Amino acid sequence: MDPFRTTLILTSYVALIVSLPGNIFIIVKNVLDLWKNRRLLLSDWLMLGFSFFSFLQVCNEGFVLYLDLYHLPSNIHVFMYLNMCTLWFSALLSLHFCLKIVQINHWLYICLQRRFPELFPWIIVGFLLGFLILNFYSTIDPKAECSSNTTSSVVSIRCSWLKLIFLTSCFLFTFLCSLSALTILISLMKHVRRIQDNTEGSGSPSIKAHIRAVRTVTTLLAASVCTSTMVPILVWSDGSWPFLCVILYLICYTLTSYFFIKGTKKLNETLSQILGRCY
C-alpha cells in the first residue's frame, strides 16, 4: 500500500474517532430527557434521529475501513440505508429550522408550518419502513439482482430501480437542504436590513436565532452534499477518492454536532456542567 493511501486511511480513523463523542453526547442527553420527562420537542427528536443514524453510519464506515468490505453485497445495502436515513433527517432538520424561524405570508407555507409537527411521526415512520422494505426485498429476491459485484473492490449495483431510487432521493434531500438554507439566509439578510436603524443591533435574539440556524443548516447542507457526492464515487470509483470523501463527510458531521450542541441551550449547559466538573 502506498504512503498516500495509508495516510488517508489513518486520517479517516482520526476523523471517525473525533466525530463519535458529539453524536454520543446528543443521543445520551436526549434519551435521558425522554426517560425523565416522557416527551421531547420536535427539534430534539430530529436531532436525536440524525445523531443516531449518523453514529451508526460512522460505526459502519469504521467497520468498512477496517475490513475493506465495500465489495460485499450485504454491506452496500447497509451503507445505502444508513446514508438515506441520515440524509432524510438532515433534510427534515433543515426544513424544521426554516419553518420555525422564517415567516412567509403564503397559505401553503403557513399550512406546512402548522401541519409539520402533526405529520412528522408518519413521515419518519413511513420513510424508514419504506426504504427498509425496499432494501430487504432487493437482498432476498433473486430476480432483482441487486447484489454487488463480489469480484471487484468497486461497488457495482446491478439493480437499476434501487440505484435510481437511491440517487434520486439523495438529490432531492440535498435540494431540500439547499432550499432551506437559502431561505433562512435570505430571511436573515432581510431581517438585518430591517433593523439596521433600530436599537436592537446584531445582539437581537431574532438575529442570533437566524445566525445559529444558518450555521447549523449550512453544515447540514455541506454534509448532505458530501454524502451525495460520496455515493456515486464509492459506487463507480476506486483509488483514493473514497477515503477523501469519507474524511470530508466526517468533518462536516462533526461540525454539525458541534453546532447542535452550541445552538441548543440544554445541550450547551449540560456540556458546560460536565466540563466544569472535569476541570
Automatic annotation (TrEMBL):
<keyword id="KW-0297">G-protein coupled receptor</keyword>
<keyword id="KW-0472">Membrane</keyword>
<dbReference type="GO" id="GO:0016020">
    <property type="term" value="C:membrane"/>
</dbReference>
<feature type="transmembrane region" description="Helical">
    <location>
        <begin position="119"/>
        <end position="140"/>
    </location>
</feature>
<keyword id="KW-1133">Transmembrane helix</keyword>
<feature type="transmembrane region" description="Helical">
    <location>
        <begin position="241"/>
        <end position="261"/>
    </location>
</feature>
<feature type="transmembrane region" description="Helical">
    <location>
        <begin position="78"/>
        <end position="99"/>
    </location>
</feature>
<keyword id="KW-0807">Transducer</keyword>
<keyword id="KW-0675">Receptor</keyword>
<comment type="similarity">
    <text>Belongs to the G-protein coupled receptor T2R family.</text>
</comment>
<dbReference type="Pfam" id="PF05296">
    <property type="entry name" value="TAS2R"/>
</dbReference>
<feature type="transmembrane region" description="Helical">
    <location>
        <begin position="160"/>
        <end position="186"/>
    </location>
</feature>
<feature type="transmembrane region" description="Helical">
    <location>
        <begin position="40"/>
        <end position="58"/>
    </location>
</feature>
<keyword id="KW-0812">Transmembrane</keyword>
<dbReference type="GO" id="GO:0004930">
    <property type="term" value="F:G protein-coupled receptor activity"/>
</dbReference>
<dbReference type="InterPro" id="IPR007960">
    <property type="entry name" value="TAS2R"/>
</dbReference>
<feature type="transmembrane region" description="Helical">
    <location>
        <begin position="6"/>
        <end position="28"/>
    </location>
</feature>
<feature type="transmembrane region" description="Helical">
    <location>
        <begin position="213"/>
        <end position="235"/>
    </location>
</feature>
<protein>
    <recommendedName>
        <fullName>Taste receptor type 2</fullName>
    </recommendedName>
</protein>
<dbReference type="GO" id="GO:0033038">
    <property type="term" value="F:bitter taste receptor activity"/>
</dbReference>
<keyword id="KW-0919">Taste</keyword>
<keyword id="KW-0716">Sensory transduction</keyword>
